[in-house]
Amino acid sequence: MDRRIHHLPFHKKIAIAFVYILLRFWYASLRLKMDKTTQEVMSQKPQVPCIFYFWHHNLFVAPMVRKMRGKRLMYGLMSASKDGAWLEALVRWFRVEAIRGSSSWRASKALQEMEQCTHTVCDIVITPDGPKGPRCQSKPGSIKWAFNQQAKIIGMNFQMRKAWYLKSWDHFCIPMPFSSIYLKARYLEAKTPEVLTHQIDTFL
C-alpha cells in the first residue's frame, strides 16, 4: 500500500482552477436559507476555535459556508490519499487549508496537527463519516479529540430538495442550479464523548 501524502502535480492544479470558476457560478445560482438561530450561530466568531461537523455527502455545498466566516482561518480534515489531493487543491481556492489524515492512516498525526491549529482562533471542518464511511456514522477519533478541546462544537444539517445523488458510498449530493439549500446549525454541548457522538449522529 502506498503510504504517503499525495499532492496534485502543477498541470492538474490548473484544471482545478477551472473547476473553481465553474463552482463560483454554480454557487451564485443557489439560495442558502437559514432560520434565525442558524444565522446567529454562523455569524458569531468567538475568540476560541470552532469545530464544524457535517456529513461527507454534503461536501459539495460546504464552500458556501466559508464566506460566512469572514477572514477567520479555516482548516479541513481530509484523507492523505489521491482523492484527498484533489480536494486539498480545490478547497485552497476557497481559503481552506488541509490537514491530511484519516482513521485508516495518519490519524494520530492529523489530530496532532489539529491540536496545533487550536492554539489560534480558527475554524476546523470535519466530516465524521469520511473518507470512506460507513455513511452517516461517526467515527470516534475526531469526536473524542473535539470533546477535550476548549472549542465551540457546531453541527450543520443540510437539506436539498432538488439535487443529484451519485452512486458512491455516501450518495454524494449535488444540488441542482438555481435550487434552494436549507441549513440548520446548532452549538452541540455534551458531558461525555459518547453523548456528543449521539448528538452528532442524530442532528446532522
Query: What is the helix/strand order?
Result: HEHEHEHEHEHEEEEH
What's the domain count? 1
Helix proportion? 25-40%
Number of discrete helical segments = 7
Q: How big is the Rg?
A: 16 Å
Indicate the multimeric state. Answer: single chain
Overall mean confidence score, pLDDT: 92
Low-confidence stretches: none
Provide the spatial order of strands within the biggest beta sheet: 1-9-6-2-5-3-4
End-to-end Cα distance, whole Å, is: 33 Å
Largest beta-sheet details = 7 strands, mixed
Give the amount of beta strand, in percent. 15-25%
- What structural category do the secondary elements indicate? alpha/beta
Assign an overall shape: globular
Number of strands: 9
Describe the fold and architecture.
By secondary structure, the protein is an alpha/beta fold. It has helices at 10-29, 36-43, 63-66, 82-91, 107-117, 140-147, 193-203; strands spanning 31-34, 50-53, 73-78, 97-100, 122-126, 152-160, 163-165, 173-175, 180-187. The protein has one domain (10-203). The chain contains seven helices and nine strands. A seven-stranded mixed sheet has the order 1-9-6-2-5-3-4, with helices on both faces. Strand 7 and strand 8 form a beta hairpin. Helix 6 crosses helix 7.
